[in-house]
Amino acid sequence: MDPILYSAVDGGTNDLVRQDIIANNLANANTPGFKADLYQAQVMYLTDANGGVPANGQTYIVEQPSTVDISPGPIMTTGRPLDVAVSGRGYLAVQDANGNEFYTRGGSFQINADGQLVSEKGFFVVGDGGPISIPPARSITIGSDGTISIIPLNGSRKDTAVLDRLKTVALDSGQATRSTNGLFKLAQGGIAETDPSIQVVGGALEGSNVNAVDQMVQMISANRDFEAQMKIMATVETDADKLAQILQD
């Protein structure tokens, strides 16, 4: 394959991957707690048998695993008792049906038919004692430390009972990776330790940190880069056809 054509194909393929990542970010611009993915790639040189780089060495693009922009999104007050926004670098712990633990900034919770506190996607919300169950109550309050308190159906404020505390953990950008279910997990595996210093805001949600305008600019740039690679491929094909015609003549 012509080295120029190879580079164009390689570049175009990576531009498509870049566009997919940007499109997913834009699709989640209004998803509470969503963190934008960041495309990463590195240009490498083909080396000779001795490991050296020729003067006219060919380059190729190596796609790196995308990282996540962990900057906070805006806090939106909802007034809903089961909505929770996490401050700082904290995350809320949830479990799937198999007991696997994941972490999220999306705190739009609800109570399922079995009385269990679940996330918007149906994952079980984890507390100090495991998945949290909420009995029928007159009111539910989530404190700034994640403590869940209820007033029983036939009780008064003096009957307020503490049920559990949301498991909150602190994760840095290098510790967490996005799972296929859209939630985060530890990059090295295992379960994160509870960090009781993490504060939450009840009756509020954290908005997505996706900057739609910035993502649209990146999408336009990626699209123009892709079109440029396609033009290079078309030019190489045209030149090859003309060369073949000259040789035939």
Describe this structure in words.
The protein is α+β, with helices and mostly antiparallel strands and 249 residues long. It has 2 domains: 3-68 and 210-248, no CATH class; 75-206, no CATH class. The protein has helices at residues 3-27, 212-248; strands at residues 37-45, 59-68, 75-77, 84-86, 90-95, 101-104, 110-111, 117-118, 124-127, 130-131, 137-142, 147-152, 161-165, 168-170, 176-178, 184-186, 200-202, 204-206. Strands 5, 6, 9, 10 and 14 form a 5-stranded antiparallel beta sheet that branches. Strands 11-12-13 form a 3-stranded antiparallel beta sheet, with no helix packed on it. A two-stranded antiparallel ribbon has the order 1-2. Helix 1 packs antiparallel against helix 2 (212-248). The radius of gyration is 26 Å and the shape is elongated. The mean pLDDT is 86.
What is the general shape? elongated
> Which stretches are low in confidence, meaning pLDDT under 50 for 5 or more residues running?
none
Percentage of residues in strands: 25-35%
Query: Portion of residues in helices?
Result: 10-25%
Average residue pLDDT? 86
What is the element string, with H for helices and E for strands? HEEEEEEEEEEEEEEEEEEH
Oligomer: single chain
What is the number of helical segments per DSSP (H or I, 4+ residues)? 2
- Rounded to the nearest angstrom, the distance between the terminal CA atoms is 24 Å
Radius of gyration: 26 Å
Please give the largest β-sheet: 5 strands, antiparallel
Structural class: alpha+beta
